[in-house]
UniProtKB/TrEMBL annotation:
SMART domains xrefs: CAT
Source species, domain of life: Bacteria
InterPro entries assigned: CAT-like_dom_sf, Cmp_AcTrfase
Protein's UniProt keywords contain Phosphoprotein: no
Source organism of this protein record: Maribacter dokdonensis
Keywords: Transferase
Active site, per annotation: H186 (proton acceptor)
Name used for this protein in its record: Chloramphenicol O-acetyltransferase type A
Length: 209
């Protein structure tokens, strides 16, 4: 479900109109998160660490209203639920895009995701059978401890979906950290909102069950 925002009464009206005219309205921020607790819990319970931090990231995004805004035509909508469209690596060195429904419960999320992930792994297609505007584009680069990241974009395509990428986990002084890159449309979200996302993600990685 979604609801249309009244742009004329929206507190972000001027910000939206200003940044939406840019040829590149997206900006990105990269920060490291402490994943020591989350990684330990994943291994103790036999969880896929990728699925674990993907779920926590999606859960955090669904807690930030700005991450649920989407531009469609000349209108802005707020979606009730945001799902995931992560890249899935294949054994032949390629990848495919997938579409995974969000569920607040981690085990249910994994159960729903498993057949779709297998479908992508066994397919040669790049694009998923299902998609929609109410997604976040996720990617994982577990080979690189990056400090910044950019995305290939078609500037003529009207995109407003956030893009979140995860890098290589490293251990320094007993603390396991991982870089996370977040790109958002500046007409919909400011640095404040990205900061709120990182705070929520760290909270979930540390304490969430």
């Amino acid at each position: 479900m979604r609801k249309e925002l009244n742009i004329h009464e929206w507190s972000r009206k001027e910000h939206f109109n200003f940044f939406s005219k840019f040829s590149e309205p997206f900006y990105g921020i990269t920060a490291k998160i402490d994943c020591s607790t989350a990684y330990k819990k994943s291994k103790e319970n036999g969880y896929s660490f990728f699925m674990y931090y993907l779920h926590k990231s999606l859960k955090a995004a669904n807690n930030i209203t700005a991450f649920k805004y989407r531009i469609e035509g000349d209108k802005v909508y707020e979606y009730d639920v945001i799902n995931a469209s992560p890249t899935i690596n294949r054994s032949n060195g390629t990848f495919g895009f997938s579409y995974l429904d969000y569920h607040e419960d981690f085990n249910t999320f994994c159960d729903l995701a498993a057949p779709r992930i297998e479908e992508v792994k066994n397919s040669k297609s790049l694009m998923p059978a299902l998609s929609g505007e109410n997604v976040i584009h996720f990617s994982s680069l577990p080979w690189i401890d990056f400090t910044s990241l950019s995305h290939a974009r078609h500037y003529d395509f009207p995109d407003s979906c956030p893009k979140i990428s995860f890098g290589k986990m490293t251990t320094v002084d007993g603390i396991q950290k991982m870089p996370v890159s977040v790109h958002v449309h500046h007409g919909l979200a400011d640095g404040l909102h990205v900061g709120q996302f990182f705070e929520k993600l760290q909270e979930l990685m540390d304490f969430d069950d």
